[in-house]
Specification:
104 residues, mainly beta, 3-stranded antiparallel sheet, 1 helix, globular
C-alpha cells in the first residue's frame, strides 16, 4: 500500500486509461471516444499520444485536438470528442485526469 501511495503522490495524474482510436477518413471531424473516467466535470479529461500509426506517410504532422468553437459538441460522462488534422490516423491515447492540488 505504501508503494502505491508513493506512486500516486509522485504523478500529476489521479486516474488514467489507454484507448485505441481511429480518426475519421475526413480530417478535422469529431470522433466520439468512450471513456471509463468519471471526473466531476468531463472537461477535466486530458490526453496524450502514446502510440501513433499511418497507412502511408501523412502530408502534415498529426495534431489531435478538441474543437473550441461555440458550436462544439459538449463532453459528457462516458464520452469525449476529439479531432485530428490528418485523416484516418490510428493511435493509442492516454486519457487522464489531472490533480487539482499537487501531492494531495
Amino acid at each position: 500500500m505504501a508503494l502505491a501511495d508513493d506512486l500516486r503522490k509522485a504523478t500529476s495524474q489521479i486516474e488514467w486509461e489507454h484507448v485505441e482510436v481511429t480518426f475519421p477518413s475526413t480530417a478535422d471531424m469529431d470522433l466520439a471516444i468512450p471513456t471509463i473516467l468519471r471526473p466531476e466535470n468531463p472537461e477535466q479529461i486530458y490526453w496524450r499520444i502514446v502510440d501513433i500509426g499511418f497507412l502511408s506517410a501523412p502530408a502534415a504532422c498529426p495534431a489531435i485536438y478538441r474543437d473550441t468553437s461555440k458550436t462544439r459538441r459538449a463532453w459528457y460522462s462516458g464520452y469525449i470528442y476529439l479531432r485530428c488534422n490528418v485523416a484516418s490516423v490510428k493511435c493509442t491515447l492516454e486519457l487522464f485526469i489531472k490533480r487539482t492540488k499537487p501531492n494531495a
